[in-house]
Write a structure and sequence with these properties.
Layout (H helix, E strand, L loop, with lengths): L3 H38 L3 H37 L2 H7 L4 H40 L1 H12 L1 E3 L4 E4 L2 E3 L2 E3 L2 E4 L7 E13 L4 E13 L3 E14 L19 H31 L9 H31 L1 H16 L4 H29 L9 H18 L2
Antiparallel strand pairs: 1-2, 2-5, 3-4, 4-6, 5-6, 6-7, 7-8
Helix pairs in contact: 1-2, 1-4, 2-4, 2-8, 2-9, 4-7, 4-8, 6-7, 7-9, 8-9, 8-10, 9-10
Length: 398
């Protein structure tokens, strides 16, 4: 039986490297990925500070699996290179016993990774979106001051001659849309104000002129308040309008039941409309505009229900990549037999992501479209488990 002291030593080494690498990698992700996004959107210092708590779980979501793989690769690669694996085997102990600390570590870490993934998508990303939206006034003024132009992801753009304090001189606001929904407003002077209650950006314009489509044009003298709606990004109470990827796991089950009821209601509505059209001898209405509208709403409801069924499987599959990465990485590091940390990690990490992520994305896309059961998102993990078992069998013959 493998000595308890050796087991504790291996586990301690894994934990030590894991903690240090996790701090470093999480910081790098924050600085590079998140920091680049902050600079691109033009957020100010206060907005950056408000954003950091929401960005941390997003960074951990990606850092934990890679760090778990890195830590076991370092420990077992060094042990194999220094001959410790051979020494243990010579003493009559199976090398498989040495893998037990890594397997236990990964098994305990995986539920934590699931929690980080759940926090990242249900709290972190909506929080980032909220901070950016509430900072849209400052972002717009900062870009208008430097570039005299601001284009928003919410479907509008602003061009000014200059900025004096908080006053926009000769602003031109263009709201993008389809056909007559698009319009342009110009004014002598204006000011931007973010209204959190109405979730809109208010433009206080002076002597403005509106052009809508080709036929509508009007001049509005004096002061006029013009609103640009920003959607329901701040409305967190209405779960039915939120994307399944933004819902916490604890709410998905109940929302799935409610969405199933909505889908059945849409099916009943379509059946009633079709039956009424046949009874009144108006079969042409079955393929008409109203029928297509109901059918489109039904398809959207079914698609959302499919995504609600897939989302829990996706969260757990994503979190348990830690376990399957370690299942492959630990025996592969023993087989590689090198003490160079980065060489060992590269030999383990690159083949793993080249095999896992394409299969994971394939399973996710097929599950979301309904062409594969929700558990199809685990296809990448299943393949990794097969590779890991083959490597463990090779270590057993080591």
């Amino acid at each position: 039986m493998i000595p308890t002291r050796l087991t504790r030593t291996i586990l301690f080494e894994i934990l030590r490297i894991f903690v240090i690498a996790l701090v470093v990698l999480t910081t790098l992700i924050l600085l590079i990925a998140v920091g680049r996004e902050l600079i691109r959107k033009g957020l100010g210092p206060m907005a950056v500070l408000q954003l950091l708590p929401f960005a941390i779980p997003i960074s951990l979501q990606h850092a934990v699996p890679a760090t778990a793989l890195f830590s076991v690769c370092c420990v077992y690669g060094r042990m194999a290179a220094d001959g410790e694996i051979s020494t243990v085997k010579a003493s009559g102990i199976s090398p498989l016993k040495l893998l037990q600390p890594a397997i236990v570590f990964a098994a305990l870490l995986s539920p934590v990774a699931v929690y980080c993934s759940d926090m990242a998508v249900s709290w972190g990303k909506p929080g980032v979106k909220r901070v950016v939206l509430l900072s849209i006034e400052d972002i717009a003024y900062r870009l208008l001051q430097s570039d005299h132009s601001y284009t928003s992801d919410h479907g509008f753009s602003i061009h000014v001659r200059e900025i004096v304090g908080r006053r926009m001189i000769s602003p031109r606001v263009t709201v993008r849309g389809n056909g007559d929904d698009a319009f342009t407003v110009t004014a002598n002077e204006g000011q931007l104000v973010m209204d959190e209650e109405s979730q809109s950006l208010k433009l206080k314009l002076i002597d403005s002129e509106m052009i809508r489509g080709k036929a509508l044009q009007g001049y509005i003298p004096g002061e006029y308040d013009f609103e640009i709606p920003l959607g329901n990004a701040l409305d967190e109470d209405d779960i039915s309008t939120r994307s399944p990827s933004e819902l916490p796991l604890r709410l998905i089950r109940d929302e799935k039941l409610r969405q199933r009821e909505r889908t059945h209601a849409k099916i009943g509505e379509l059946a009633a409309f079709t039956g009424f059209s046949l009874m009144t001898s108006r079969p042409t209405e079955i393929g008409g505009e109203k029928s297509q509208s109901i059918q489109s709403s039904l398809n959207g409801s079914r698609h959302r229900l499919t995504r609600l069924r897939t989302e829990p499987w996706r969260r757990w599959a994503e979190g348990f990549t830690c376990f399957f990465f370690v299942l492959v990485g630990a025996p592969l590091a023993i087989v590689a037999k090198t003490s160079d940390y980065w060489t060992t990690f590269g030999m383990c990490f690159l083949p793993t992501i080249l095999v896992y992520y394409p299969l994971y994305l394939l399973g996710l896309d097929q599950a979301k479209s309904g062409d594969m059961p929700p558990y199809g998102v685990w296809i990448g993990n299943v393949v990794l488990s097969g590779v890991g078992l083959l490597l463990i069998a090779r270590v057993r013959r080591y």
